[in-house]
Amino acid sequence: MKLAALILAAVSLGSPFGLAEASAIDNTDGLTVEIVVEVEGGFSTVLVRPFSSFDELPPTAMQDRGDGRWGALVKLPSAEDWLVAFEGIRETGETVRSDSAFLTELGVDALVVAGPPTTPLPGRSWDLTTLWLTLAIVGTLSALGFLAWWTFAADPEVEDPDDDLAEGDLTNGRE
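Given the sequence above, the corresponding structure tokens read:
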């Protein structure tokens, strides 16, 4: 479902970064937002860095629009109110980082985002230690099962007293 949200707000992020604006483009699989920021000074690259209290997403390079404004489409994994910061990189390697702002502060409609990002639920972790522990338990139980089968399935040549009776002799030696 395509959502075209109007730019309702703009935030000034401090020098050399000017006004920043954002609008939601699509929220079908996560959230895609268009972010535009005004930048003063001679930066060769400007990055937008989305993050939350528990996760930092990879930065997205912004395109110079030629009028002192830089823009980018940013794909976020969830439709939540992520924080964004901007980083300008000069050709000398010097970097300058802006203040951070929530997407809703930049103009993304609050109905599109479901509040700040929540910590993901802990999933089943199959790290190397857990894998080896699981394999050791399964191997031990398999060995014990095989040992039990081998013990009780063996034919121990024990004589049965009823085997001495001849077939057809139902009197047990009594006449």
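Residues 1-9 have pLDDT under 50 and may be disordered. Try to locate this feature in the token string yourself.
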